[in-house]
């Protein structure tokens, strides 16, 4: 979420997806009633330090760190919020005053605070007590959030402990304040909502657990039609020039699909401030994450990425909520699979719910100033990016031919033919550095599934070829060396 988005929320005022609360020195007493209501309804944003009329009153700067800790601790305390839920907490300074922003997604489960159930409507939060109303909430969540389907026959031994360790390590690297990575594997699965007990007393590992941590054999046995397809159709449009079929866990699926994107799409040179960022990564990592996080996994249809000469299509089976074209500027993000989305967020696979649309809107004009896009919410959710074919070369190519080039108002640079002499593994390492110039060699090793010494060897080769250099020590960053 950006500062401008927060300002827009304040300007529009409180509504079914936005709540303002004054919080100068302590948390409001009703904070978790609103958290609970958003989790049980359609999600929303809570602004601490703003009064009911939209006036920014601010939070005492000396108390912000403690308030953020209090929110995190209470959200993970089952006596305060049950089931517990990890909330995304940010702070902003607006008009010289500090505010705290809580982003609360919709949850696939029914939550209670202090033993009471709350839901949200236009007038605010209200308590639900009647069994019929509670049953309606349960049925709505069960029918929509299929990721919560329980498989009683699946045991802990059916899951891959290496994948669980990998997820915990990603959380440790990306969000160390969330101490889930310190839990035992079984406790970790419960905390993340991947092992649950439903309202009828049935308990077990969920569809989301199988998708993240199941073996390929288990996934195919339980979900035989589940797959992702990536197609390149630039020359042979009736069949394909290149094809990738993915039938594996979501951690590997993400990496494989991103590798296909990196292989076939350019990455023009771009500086944000004085830092090189990967426009390709900013735009397409979120779109790849979206077809993983928001697809309907009980549908037999695959999720498909198709790269054509003049456009790229991302399509995934969907339970539509908004129906028709979506305007990113007037849209409240909604997580189809909140548990999957939450775990991907904490592993650093996505920035936040709705960040895919935000990044396309922000970075696509920088990637190709003539490109356009559309988002369509139907039985298949479609994201289509259209390129102006006259531009020639905005789409297609690989890292070897894409790093470099020029952009108006930006510093230009080229790596020249040195890229052509890199090994595939060195190109993978370089891609990770472009995506995150502060990445550690240990994280590179974890992502590429190679040992530390191999990473150091590849980094040494890139430095010797004058492609990268290290600025600073262990707390420094990698710099791409520009060839004027």
Task: Please tell me the CATH architecture of the largest domain by its name.
Answer: 2-Layer Sandwich
CATH level 3 topology of the largest domain: Heat Shock Protein 90
Helix percentage: 25-40%
Number of strands: 22
Shape: globular
Distance between the ends:
36 Å
- Which CATH top level class of the largest domain fits? Alpha Beta
Largest sheet, spatial ordering of strands: 13-12-16-17-20-19-18
Helix- and strand-based class?
A: alpha+beta
Number of domains: 4
Residue stretches low in confidence (pLDDT < 50, at least 5 long) are 390-394, 396-417
Report the total helices: 16
What percentage of the residues does DSSP assign to strands (E)? Answer: 15-25%
Outline the biggest β-sheet.
7 strands, mixed
User: What would the average pLDDT be, to the nearest integer?
Assistant: 82
- How large, in whole angstroms, is the Cα Rg? 23 Å
Annotate the secondary structure layout.
Blueprint lengths: L2 H10 L5 E4 L9 H10 L3 E5 L15 H12 L5 E2 L5 E7 L2 E8 L7 E2 L3 E5 L2 E5 L2 H14 L5 E2 L9 H14 L10 H7 L3 E3 L5 E4 H7 L2 H7 L5 E6 L8 E5 L3 H15 L6 E2 L2 E2 L2 H15 L9 E6 L2 E7 L6 E3 L11 H9 L8 H13 L4 E6 L2 E7 L12 H4 L21 H12 L5 H8 L3 H13 L3 E4 L5 E4 L4
Parallel strand pairs: 1-2, 12-16
Antiparallel strand pairs: 2-5, 3-6, 4-5, 7-8, 9-11, 10-11, 12-13, 14-15, 16-17, 17-20, 18-19, 19-20, 21-22
Helix pairs in contact: 9-10, 10-12, 14-16, 15-16
């Amino acid at each position: 979420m950006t500062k401008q988005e927060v300002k827009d929320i304040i300007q529009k005022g409180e509504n079914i997806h936005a709540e303002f609360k004054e919080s100068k020195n302590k948390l409001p007493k009703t904070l978790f009633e609103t958290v609970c209501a958003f989790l049980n309804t359609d999600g929303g944003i809570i602004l601490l330090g703003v009064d009911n009329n939209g006036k920014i009153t601010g939070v005492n700067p000396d108390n912000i760190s403690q308030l953020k800790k209090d929110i995190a601790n209470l959200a993970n305390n089952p006596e305060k919020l049950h089931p517990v839920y990890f909330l995304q907490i940010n702070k902003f300074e607006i008009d010289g005053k500090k505010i705290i922003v809580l982003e609360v997604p919709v949850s696939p489960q029914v939550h209670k605070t202090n033993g009471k159930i709350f839901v949200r409507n236009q007038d605010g939060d209200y308590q639900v007590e009647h069994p019929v109303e509670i049953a309606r909430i349960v049925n709505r969540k069960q029918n929509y959030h299929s990721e919560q389907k329980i498989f009683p026959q699946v045991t802990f031994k059916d899951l891959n402990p290496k994948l669980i360790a990998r997820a915990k390590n990603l959380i440790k690297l990306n969000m160390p304040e969330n101490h889930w990575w310190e839990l035992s594997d079984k406790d970790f699965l419960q905390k993340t909502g991947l092992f649950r007990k439903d309202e009828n007393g049935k308990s077990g590992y969920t569809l989301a657990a199988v998708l993240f941590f199941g073996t390929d054999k288990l996934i195919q046995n339980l979900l035989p039609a589940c797959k992702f397809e990536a197609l390149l159709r630039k020359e042979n449009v009736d069949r394909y020039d290149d094809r990738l079929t993915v039938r594996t866990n979501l951690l590997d699926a993400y990496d494989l699909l991103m590798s296909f994107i990196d292989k076939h799409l350019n990455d023009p040179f771009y500086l944000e401030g004085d830092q090189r960022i990967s426009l390709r990564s900013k735009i397409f990592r979120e779109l790849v994450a979206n077809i993983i996080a928001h697809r309907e996994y009980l549908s037999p249809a695959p999720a498909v990425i198709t790269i054509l000469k003049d456009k790229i299509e991302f399509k995934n089976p969907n339970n539509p909520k908004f129906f028709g074209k979506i305007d990113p500027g007037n849209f409240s993000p909604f997580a189809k699979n909140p548990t999957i989305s939450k775990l991907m967020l904490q592993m650093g696979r996505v920035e936040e719910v709705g960040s895919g649309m935000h990044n396309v809107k922000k970075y696509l004009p920088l990637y190709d100033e003539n490109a356009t896009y559309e988002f369509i919410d139907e039985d298949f959710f479609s994201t289509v990016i259209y390129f102006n074919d006259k531009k020639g070369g905005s789409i297609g190519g690989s890292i070897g031919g894409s790093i470099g080039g020029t952009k108006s108002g930006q510093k230009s640079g080229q790596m020249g033919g040195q890229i052509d002499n890199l090994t595939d593994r060195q190109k993978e390492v370089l891609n990770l550095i472009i995506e995150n110039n502060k990445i550690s060699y240990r994280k590179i090793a974890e992502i590429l599934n190679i040992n530390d010494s191999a990473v150091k060897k590849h980094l040494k080769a890139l430095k010797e070829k004058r492609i990268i250099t290290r600025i600073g020590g262990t707390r420094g960053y990698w710099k791409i060396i520009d060839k004027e």
